[in-house]
Amino acid sequence: MKKIGGQIARFLIFFSAGMGILYLVYHNLNSSYQADCALKGIPREECSLMNKVWTDFLQVDLSWLSLVLIAFMISNVLRTFRWQMLLRPLGYSPGFLTAFFSIMLGYFANLGIPRMGEVFRGLALSKHDDIPFEKVMGTIVTDRIMDVVMLGIFLLLGFWVEFDTFWSFLSGALQSKSISPLSITVLTLFLIGGGALLLFTRNTWSQWKMVRVIADKLMGFWEGIKSVKSVSSPPLFIFYTVGIGPCIL
Length: 249
Known about the structure:
The chain is mainly α and 249 residues long.
């Protein structure tokens, strides 16, 4: 009974978190929509965000929407399989649905609190399957590094195909940005000085309890990142990564 009660409590917590995020998203969007209506002189009673969403949905080409949804689902199914592969070398085997819905929760969290989706995703799996949070986050970092690698490959292919277009764009962007040599010098001296100070005082601060706790967490985080070296099937891991690539673009 205690185990069932704990599962119900976790479900209610994450369900409440999801509903809270959805409310926050709707509230923010509705505020922006009402402000836009006010600028256009549309009366508030005639400005309903829900009506606009429903009207826009009825005008959508369902064939394109279906393709987008299929690509999105394929991407996240493959991402779930890849994430499971990263977690198994650490001694943890979360179920497919648990990992999948943790990823979905991360997307919802990004809508309400930008850039916090990966933290919510890791927290959800960590709490549900009792996995150290820092290790989960290490695997998520590896997961995102793989995405960046694939994105870089596609960018290089695009750069090779449209070299002239990309080069003219980059040249214009670089010419419009100017960095002061003084700023670079000050930043360099600051980094060197800070590094030297930490080095010479390491015998003191390395004994602090808080530092040891942080060091242990960082080691767990690093274990999560290194798990990519111990996946059961590197070819399958690469297949998942290549399969996700076109979908995230």
